[in-house]
Amino acid sequence: MTSLMESLSTYMVPFNMFFPEIDLLQSGSFFKVMRGEEELGIFMALELYCPDPDCDCQKVLIQFFEVINQEPRAHASLSYGWESIPFYQKWGGMTKKEALEMKEGYLEPFNPQLQYAPELLEAFRSRIKEDPQFLKKLKLHYTMVKDKISQKEEHKKNVIPIRPRR
Questions:
Q1: What is the DSSP letter of 115?
Q2: pLDDT tens readout for residues 23-36
Q3: Secondary structure letter of residue 10 according to DSSP
Q4: Are strands 59-66 and 38-49 parallel, antiparallel or unpaired?
Q5: 100 and 85 in contact (C-beta within 8 Å)?
Q6: Rounded CA gap, 89 and 65, in Å?
Q7: Distance between CA 80 and CA 1 in Å, rounded?
Q8: pLDDT tens across 104-137, in order?
Q9: Which of 4, 43, 69, 107 is the most buried (most CB within 10 A)?
Q10: Residue 72: Cβ-neighbour burial (10 angstroms; 0-12, 13-18, 19+)
């Protein structure tokens, strides 16, 4: 049996797959990650969203890729939800602790986390607290994805199947 927290991370799609016309570098966010005075690297945050038209999860999955690394692999994957704790308790049947983790952002337990994952999580949490435009962008991207998905679903309803002549 798959747990709720596990299923939340299994099927998310990158924002740029919904909007290939938007440059990935333009839509992405960059994080300079530090440990004390030491720079650990510069990472790009790739946003992934739920493609289910019936899901109102109000969350994003973020994967961090090191900018200068030749090997494209996620160094950390985290989930973040901007709604209230009661929203996630009702929507996902989460405990108060799980809903609080969603609201604060947490490292996905079912995705690989490399050595700088804790620092990337902290950098993300700091950005959310200090930069209201960043959170506004995540919400906008979520809305754009859901709008695009619902347009496709509405289009499917309006298509009349044509049967070939015999």
A1: T
A2: 776 777 899 888 88
A3: S
A4: antiparallel
A5: yes
A6: 31
A7: 23
A8: 999 999 899 999 999 999 999 999 999 999 999 9
A9: 43
A10: exposed
